[in-house]
Amino acid sequence: YVLSGYTGAYAFDRKSNSLVLGGRLGYYVFDRLQVEGTVSWTHVRRPAEIVESLFGLTLEAEDFHMVFYHLSATWELMPGRQMVPFVSGGAGSSIMQGDTETSINFGAGTLLFLSKRTAMRWEVRDHQFHFGTGPSRRTSNNIEFTLGSALLF
Fold this sequence. Notes:
Strand order of the largest sheet: 1-2-3-4-5-6-7-8
Low-confidence stretches: none
Order of helices and strands: EEEEEEEE
Radius of gyration: 17 Å
Structural class: mainly beta
Number of strands: 8
Helix content: under 10%
Strand content: over 45%
Mean pLDDT: 88
Oligomer: single chain
Largest sheet: 8 strands, antiparallel, barrel
């Protein structure tokens, strides 16, 4: 088992940068393959922007908390070394403004083992989901950069 905590930056729809906090619990299925469950939180603040709709232009700003969770599979490219690069992908859900949206994610990163049981982990991940209602529904690509620690059991 691997228990991880992390913090970093989250870019919501490439227009708002905010702090992200989260944790993961992983299990090594094989020596290269790990299954992880992740829960994260961020506070999104988007500046006012002009939004065009069917009935005219409006000035809109957003300020909300977002929680997202997902189940991912992580494939380690060179296991058994001190520095282990990996790729990861999975599916989950993003909860914001009272709505729940299905999301997918994929990313890459590196584990740097400081001892047999502890490691430092950094990664970049893209979270994709649809949000909005009706004709204003659109796809959002949200980039997450994180740095954290991992404890192996």
